[in-house]
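User:
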Amino acid sequence: MNNRKKQWRLTVMAAAVCATTLVGASVASASPSVALPKAFVHQTLVSPAVVGYPPYAYLTSSNKIVGIDPDLSTALGGPLHHGVELKVASFENSLLGLQNGTYFMVTGSDITAVREKTLDMVSYLADHYEFLSLASQPAIGTTTNDLCGLTISTVAADSSIPILQGYSTACTTAGLKPITVTTFADQGSAVLAVESGQANATTATVTNLGYVNVQSPGKFRLDGPSFDYVYIGIATKKGNGLAQSLAKALNVLIANGKYHAILAKYGVQADAVTKALVNPNPNITK
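Assistant: Predicted structure:
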């Protein structure tokens, strides 16, 4: 879990710490069968739900676990022909639970070279930074030069800031106006700056911005050039064979359309991968 997702921590997090919710996946008889490693066939498969990070995972007002990760976790039960249960946990405890066998997988993990040394990881999203602007205003354009002269809002200390500063330097070197970067305490305030006209656009991961977009239909558009790609993956214990089974199961969901339907539900179709990979090269561009 990276700092981008922490921008969206919900006030229900305190309640979630003491809440435990179990959700059984319905086993879809029509799904192609993907074999689990023998050691897991008769086990209860529990996946942690790291709530407080919409749209990855969060609690509704009725304390129901929802989000991209819970929906995908339970959907995996179809091709695996095995129920998947969800249990509220912190990300840190999720990784500890993975190592001690409490959880069979952990979703929402950035895939890095360091993590791939000790974990097997399966890619299921290609997250990246994009921009959000008002739909009532002219579109930004698709190149970094189109950002020249604009005011962009973002969260203080966000990893996008030095990148935008580099783009700004390129603007002035080319004789164009610089990019003005304004920072705010959280993503909600950065979005409000766009609504109020203080900024032409805000930038964040497309997962976060896609969620904002579907919450306010017709108000915003995902806009501008894409940058700073990172795979989001499922982490499993190194060498236990689960990663290969999960990749096959995810690819069944990609092929039958259930994967894309889940992403569309949360407005993050732009994060879709064409194929789930085991331990992919973490240095990606698109």
